[in-house]
Design goal:
The protein is an alpha/beta fold. The protein has a single domain (2-212), classed as Uracil-DNA glycosylase-like domain (Uracil-DNA Glycosylase, subunit E, 3-Layer(aba) Sandwich). Helices cover 40% and strands 9% of the residues. It is built from eleven helices and four strands. The protein is globular and about 50 Å long. The protein starts with a helix and ends in an 11-residue tail after the last helix.
Length: 223
């Protein structure tokens, strides 16, 4: 397990290492290390903590909660909803396509050249899945860890805007009932209510909540 732990934490900043150093996280991580099938998980081990490499805990302004990684390993990058930059916009998963449709609705004319959301992550948007690995029957393995992340981030900074699309993401926010939140149905086409998601002005609400607290809005353009 030591080799897997080393790969998992490789590249994390001192801030995140300190964040994960308490007993709660150590117990959760030890449980995860012994439970996840690391030889068959999606994404690969080096990408599982990628969200934490992109956004420092003290810089988090927004948390967008996903459910779990894309089942196609070529799409899963360790950031909720994001895909690699070389995936054409016409080939991205339906849920991400609807996220970008909502974005275009909120900001007509916004420049979107790819669906790699790393730029958002580097701007203070933590793109966090409820489950950081995908394998049938193993979603709940990560629940304690993810809710602990949410709870600690909220304690550090109550101004964080939490974005929960779908019931799974909303359940994660039960740990922080007083947090600032933007909620809606899941953007997946499977909901059958795609237009409801696209027209919900999620991105406008995110920036409204930031600006109402005297914070800079997020530039959601992708180029």
């Amino acid at each position: 397990m030591d080799a897997i732990r080393e790969q998992l934490f490789r590249g994390l900043s001192p801030s995140w290492l300190q964040f994960f150093s308490d007993t709660t996280f150590q117990n959760e991580i030890n449980y995860i290390l012994g439970t996840v099938d690391w030889h068959n998980c999606i994404p690969s081990i080096d990408k599982v903590f990628y969200a934490f490499r992109c956004t420092e805990p003290q810089d988090v302004k927004v948390v967008i909660l996903g459910q779990d990684p894309y089942p196609n390993p070529n799409n899963a990058v360790g950031l909720s909803f994001s895909v690699p930059r070389d995936i054409p916009l016409g080939s991205i998963p339906g849920s991400l396509a609807n996220v970008l449709k909502c974005l275009r609705n909120d900001y007509p004319g916004i420049r979107i050249e790819f669906a790699d959301l790393t730029k958002w992550a580097l701007s203070g948007v933590l793109l966090l899945n409820g489950s950081l690995t995908l394998k049938t029957g193993q979603y709940n393995v990560w629940t304690g860890f993810t809710t602990a992340v949410i709870r600690k981030l909220y304690t550090m900074n109550p101004k964080i805007v939490f974005v929960a699309w779908g019931n799974t993401a909303k359940d994660l926010l039960k740990e922080v009932p007083k947090c600032i939140r933007v909620e809606g149905i899941h953007p997946s086409n499977a909901t059958g209510r795609t237009n409801e998601f696209i027209n919900a002005k999620h991105f406008l609400w995110i920036n409204y909540h930031l600006q109402s607290q005297g914070l800079e809005p997020i530039d959601f353009s992708l180029y």
